Amino acid sequence: MTTVVEPQEAAERKAQSAPREGSIFEHSHPGRCGYQLPALDVPERPLDSILAKSLRRNSIEGELEVSEVGVVRHFTRLSKLNVSIDAGMYPLGSCTMKHNPRINEEIARTPGFAFSHPLQPDHQVQGNLELIWNLEQTLKEIFGLPRVTLQPVAGAHGELTGIMMVRKAQEKAGNARKYILIPDSAHGTNPASAAFAGYQIKELKSNSRGTVDPATLAEAVTDEVAALMVTVPNTLGVFESEIRKFADILHAKGAYLYCDGANLNAFVGIARPGDMGIDVMHTNLHKTFSTPHGGGGPGAGPVGVSKRLVPFLPAPTVERREDGSFYLEYDHPDSIGRMRAFNGNFGVLVRALTYMRSMGPEGLRRIAELAVLNANYIRARLKGSYYLPYDAPSLHEVVFSDKLQSAQEVHTLDVAKRLMDYGFHPPTIYFPLIVSGALMIEPTESEPKEELDSFCEAMLAIAREVKERPELVRTAPHTTPVRRLDEARAARNPILRWQK
Amino acid sequence: MSNLPETRTHRYIPNASEDVREMLEVIGVPSIDRLFDSIPAEVKLDRLLDVPGPWSEIESRRWFRALASRNATAVDHASFLGGGAYAHYQPACIDQLLLRGEFLTAYTPYQPEVSQGTLQSIFEYQTHQCLLTGLDVANASLYDGSTALCEAILLAERLVKGKKKVIVAKSIHPQYIETVRTYVQNLGIELVEVGWTADGRIDTAALRQACGGDVFAVAVQSPNFLGVIEDYEAIAAASGSITRIAVVAEATSLGIVAPPGEHGFDICVGEGQAWGVPTSFGGPYVGFMVVRDALKRYMPGRLVGETVDVDGRRAYVLTLATREQHIRRGKATSNICTNEALIALAANMYLSLMGKEGLREVAEQCLQKTNYLREKLRGIGSVKLPFSGPVYNEFVVRTPFPATEILGDLEHEKILGGIPLGRFYSGHDNEFLVAVTELNTREQMDHYAAALNAAISRERR
């Protein structure tokens, strides 16, 4: 466990060795250079004869002159200002920050993959097409759904894809309908994606367990409702045990059941969305299937669909001929169209399939088992010291609140910041919105017991500090490269680029 | 819950049976199965998934390398493929730095105190984008060039209530246009395509005519899909006061082509792949968006701003977040959450290494070499260069024979000779798009010209 540093000591220590790094734009010196190209090997023609001056620019004012040494040191120093899953537990709820195996990185860099071009004819990229086809087969089995598109490049992109397919199917049936139902505990991308597909949102209130009540749903589903978007398990980590009923209620009215599969880590290999009556589901390969988050992306958001929605999948699809060769099929007259140029985030797909093969059938199931065990262990250890607003059994994540700390005028934000002093990235905070002052903890299966114990001890120590020395918590963090930021100032007078 | 055997430990999942036992005791349940009681039995899987594995790294290498070897790529061919994805020089240190776990395995920088590395890098990336495009505010990245164009059109539509038509040049990357059609199909936005003239540039007379009362924006690509550099000033003059969107699908062109922000354009979006990112069969790439200052609060995606911490030290933070889905939900400027942060970081590294001189030299080499090959091919009898406008690093070639056959012949010579246009535009079956970058040598280009000459002779027989 990280030694707890007292604020004063921390300030002194920082004064000595503050990990700071100036802007790359401050490292520029006239005449320095960080690259070399081979000399031009064709006869040089006067520029004016090949591109008129009026179409050209002068040299790029303000661009850099930095050596390779300067660039390498700059980015190495910047990297040291980050915490990461490589360095320790990063228990962001809903984000599934698990170990990112390096074999995935190596395989994605195989030259035959990395240097293949997206517009090559099918016969030149049989390896790629076979890989994509195999990934689809594997996801089909995991989802229990008959087809999966790999075109979407993020979870929200997958949501948009899925809801657009629903819309197209409803249109084809004669009425696109007006509304998407979304529980109040949902991710913000759900309503945003539904709006982008041309729908209005109707919010469903969660019941006392934090889940959707079938009676509430039945009342809300009218002939103008296109679908329900529900996260399984929901953002409290609670499984929607009535999911089959949801499907029946929706299907009886000609509506669809959309599943936000961001939390697949809780049940991969244990249960399958297709068996729950789900019609369409996206998942995030950068969550359950270990591709690195990279500071915010890239990701991939494959979408699986039930039989009724197959005709509406984005084109092209990858198909296999009887002779075992593969091709891109563009002939899908009812397709919603193309969601992105080229073939999706192929490099991310390679990493995810590598991971699925590394895990195998037992390993995939063990992900969910151990992720759920780890989260419940944290729940058991912290319950009592932190308030548990919903007591229903939870799976891969647990949501506490700051109710017990608020009496001391210490809030979720303070607890999160103080955790940084103990060497941990904070959990997701103030989400889901149905919990006031939420602390949403998702450890994933990657954490060994001793790391979980360290985390719990840090959380318990903070709970004690809140009682004994609340100011220490309110002013945290004390040991990070910078302390709390003036975020209001950033928004009031936005400075969005470096300037001299 | 089931008769499934207990799962075994795995190298990625540390806790073993001893740990599990201790943890179950603390939780107070007899087995892991009991933790899943909330999942109804009727939806539980009573078997293991039917998927291959588990594979050791040795087995994974074997299988995936065998697959990769079944691709014919730039690894063992001379490649002249472009069309929105370009092979450029990739400085070695970039990939090494990207593999630092502190960058690779960090999340979105929602907690700024422990994410200054990512935040500062995005701030620097934003600065590069502004310098390159001549515009004021760049976001932290979008998925790619095609979706960036979608977002730009939706942004422009938000600026003027009630107008529903957008003009798109037909010479924008056809897959970008397809993507836009998908995105706008439920939003009541109508696309009006304007074609090109004999020089391969947008037909400005038709553009002027199309700019009616219901049009809110015009989008053009330069260099366009035919490789031709558009005349921004002429387009600005022909399109009155509507919002102008420039698409840059070949980002290194910004090293020499006049920046759209200085020639009457309000929004520049594009594909940053050309900044040293592997072509990787289409992704991950990085979409960029840069806008005039007045549009910044309408931007989609994340923005990083500078501020200070409580001790007055300079620091960076995600800002103007009230535009975004996690705050504004159904009324957000976009549904985007995950973006392409790591690729934006790679782009920042590339732009920093190449710098003022390097960006210029890459662009000049592309321009010189492209013109070398273009003149060389022009000299081959029966080869036509159908478009007379100025090009950067790509141009269209027409022969009397189907492009797929000619390119098939070139493949036998270990040349990936271009992209057939027939699959994008009907009636263009004999044309293909040829791209040249600083990676192509004179020897490759001479070989290309000879092979093309031979292919045409062969087809003639």
Which terms would index this structure?
heterodimer; A: 500 residues; alpha/beta; Aspartate Aminotransferase, domain 2; 7-stranded mixed beta sheet; 3-stranded antiparallel beta sheet; 12 strands; B: 461 residues; Aspartate Aminotransferase, domain 1; 13 helices
Task: Describe what this molecule looks like in 3D.
The complex is a heterodimer of chains A (500) and B (461). Chain A is an alpha/beta fold and 500 residues long. In chain A, 36% of the residues lie in helices and 10% in strands. A seven-stranded mixed beta sheet of chain A has the order 1-7-6-5-4-2-3, with helices on both faces. Chain A is globular and about 75 Å long. The mean pLDDT of chain A is 95. With 461 residues, chain B is an alpha/beta fold. Chain B has two domains: 78-88 and 356-460, Aspartate Aminotransferase, domain 1; 92-350, 3-Layer(aba) Sandwich (Aspartate Aminotransferase, domain 2), CATH 3.40.640. Helix content of chain B is 35%, strand content 13%. A seven-stranded mixed beta sheet of chain B has the order 2-8-7-6-5-3-4, sandwiched between helices. A three-stranded antiparallel beta sheet of chain B has the order 11-14-13, with helices on one face. A two-stranded parallel sheet of chain B has the order 1-12. In chain B, strand 3, helix 7 and strand 4 (190-194) form a beta-alpha-beta unit. In chain B, helix 6 (145-159) packs across helix 7 (174-184). Chain B is globular and about 85 Å long. Chains A and B meet through helix 3, helix 4, helix 5, helix 6 and helix 7 of A and helix 1, helix 2, helix 3, helix 4 and helix 5 of B.
With helices defined by DSSP (H or I, 4 residues minimum), what is the helix count of chain B? 13
Average pLDDT figure of chain A: 95
Helix/strand order of chain B = HHEHHHEHEHEHEHEEEEEHHEHEEEH
Number of domains of chain B: 2
In DSSP terms (H or I, runs of 4 or more residues), the helix count of chain A works out at 16
Spans of at least 5 consecutive residues with low confidence of chain A: none
Low-confidence stretches of chain B: none
CATH topology assignment of the largest domain in chain A: Aspartate Aminotransferase, domain 2
Helical coverage of chain B, percent range? 25-40%
CATH class membership of the largest domain in chain B: Alpha Beta
Order of helical and strand elements of chain A:
HHHHHHEHEHEHEHEEEEEHEHHEEHHH
Tell me about the biggest sheet of chain B?
A: 7 strands, mixed
Strand order of the largest sheet of chain A: 1-7-6-5-4-2-3
| Largest interface: chains, residues each | A-B, 204 and 202 residues
